[in-house]
Automatic annotation (TrEMBL):
Stretches with biased composition (Basic and acidic residues): 7-23
Compositional bias segments (type: Gly residues): 177-219
Chain intervals for the UniProt region annotation (Disordered): 1-27, 172-231
Annotated protein name in UniProt: Uncharacterized protein
């Protein structure tokens, strides 16, 4: 049976931005990186505005390593971070994916890079669903524990995204003359722009609610180690 890709539109396990003053949040999306019928990995997508986004594409090994880094962060309750520098084009700046715990010890995933010549960054965390509260013996569970539990759910359910990739996996074919081509295939760049064929559907969707906690976004230098200054 083919995988139902509508599951990827379910935001319940996706990382989200910190709620704004109105309680609104945006989700980072995760979906197969499709171009002209070819697919070799998944892409993380987040848009700051129309035509302004970061969407690094990764193959399965890197995706599993990011999940492992989240598991490490869950095991070790201390401030830490691990950065993955993703370069999808030699002509575009890299995107940095950062995984770890912040000063508040809440597990997070961050995207940062150059978008149309500007340094952009966004931090995401995992929240309980809208309308859901966690109680222990009638008392609210601390925010940190809520974030940890929802992060653990994402790690456990990551195979959802792997199954989506398996359903459409179709790597480019290399010729027998020692070379290889992409058959006019487009590719996601490190941030902000995209070249080549194919089309994309972008953007996280707004949703309300979520527990508080975490730190907000800001700007930072692309492909540098200034992530701490940004958060």
């Amino acid at each position: 049976m083919a995988f139902n890709h509508k599951f990827l539109k379910d935001k319940s396990i996706l990382p989200k931005t910190k709620p704004d003053a109105r309680g609104q949040q945006k989700s980072m999306s995760i979906e197969p990186n499709m171009f002209n019928g070819e697919c070799e990995g998944l892409t993380f997508k987040y848009f700051f505005g129309k035509g302004e986004g970061l969407y690094p594409a990764m193959k399965l090994g890197t995706l599993r390593a990011i999940c492992d880094a989240l598991e490490d962060a869950l095991r070790n309750k201390e401030q830490s971070k691990l950065e993955f520098e993703i370069t999808n084009s030699q002509n575009k700046p890299a995107t940095i994916i950062t995984v770890g715990r912040g000063e508040d010890l809440i597990p997070f995933l961050g995207l940062s890079g150059d978008v149309n010549g500007q340094k952009k960054a966004q931090k995401f965390m995992w929240y309980a669903d809208k309308g859901v509260r966690l109680l222990r013996n009638g008392q609210p569970v601390p925010d940190l524990e809520v974030h940890e539990r929802m992060t653990r759910t994402f790690v456990k359910e990551f195979d959802l995204f792997v199954r989506a990739l398996e359903d459409v996996f179709n790597p480019r074919e290399w010729n027998n003359n020692g070379g290889g081509g992409q058959s006019s295939r487009g590719s996601y760049q490190g941030g902000g722009q995209r070249q080549g064929g194919g089309s994309y559907q972008g953007g996280g969707s707004y949703q309300g609610g979520g527990n508080g906690g975490g730190n907000g976004g800001g700007s930072m230098a692309a492909a540098t180690n200034e992530y701490d200054e940004m958060f």
